[in-house]
Amino acid sequence: MAQSGKATPKHSKTAGSAEIASRDNRWLKQFRAALSGDRGGDGPIGVEGFRLVEAALGSGLHIEALLASNSGERHLSRVAHLLENGANILRTSDRLFAGISDTQAPQGIAALVRPRKTVLENLIGPSALVIVLAGVQDPGNVGTILRAAEAFGATGAATCSANSVGTADPLGPKALRASAGSVLRLPVLHGEPTAALLPRLHAAGLKIYAAIAATGENTEKSSHPASPLLRPWEADWKSPSALLIGNEGAGLPDEIVRAADARVTIPQAAATTPIGVESLNAAMAATVLLYEAMRQRNARR
Asked: Whole-model pTM?
């Protein structure tokens, strides 16, 4: 990536720039597919809006093309210092841009981004803190968890299936927006079954914590005789760790909980009415636990 502070903007029409006037243009078709989440296999992902485009340009990922509408032209000067030399900048009308946009109020700027390929070795190490999403189906929850993971110092994440229930695509439009760009920067391993990943995490020396609800039969289940039940501050997050977050409704499968080194639950205040908060949702629970992990690690330093 080019460094900031260059005197000459990289978005001049004399280099790497083209005007698009037809909705059948191949670039518009590619943007339309990517922004809708239909990128197909290993295709580029689409990011839309100034903040996400800025995050993409600053992430070090390869940008295949940048698209600006007439009204979005104003954003180009704000990201000029992040553009590569010879960046492929495309321009089109507001009407054609609205036809490929995935938002109700388009900001007139979008980018095609080539995501990084992540392997397990990118996530682990002496200070590993890995969050494993096992069957988290809501893309908003996925994005929010990844945003919290980056904010609180996780070394990476894995989005996995559990009992044939998959986790929402972290690179899909809704998850990407909910992550506020974190998924572009945080190493994310995608698509491996949880049951296959856990032995690899154990072999790498990580202690595995399974997050469970504060109430319900799962909390004190006798089928976990060797799995201690801890409150967040009782877990040793200073050591290399992995945190398992399960499906929004069903939680973690019983066999996954048994494979963990410990269960961790977040205490809640007593309900003041007959019907109170049953439990925190997946994103809220992950945020609380990741914050406690950061607090312990900062205290150690």
From this structure: 0.85
Which of 283, 296, 277 shows the shortest CA–CA distance to 230? Answer: 296
Domain containing 69 — which CATH number?
3.30.1330.30
31/109 same-domain check = yes
d(CA 80, CA 41): 30
Mean pLDDT of 59-73: 91
pLDDT at 10 over 90: no
Angle at 51 between CA 103 and CA 6, to 5 degrees: 135
- 156 and 105 share a domain? no
Domain that holds residue 219: 120-300
Structural domain ending residue among the three candidates 114, 141, 162: 114
Whether 125 and 207 have beta carbons less than 8 Å apart is answered as no
3-class DSSP assignment, residue 158: strand
User: 79 pLDDT exceeds 50?
Assistant: yes
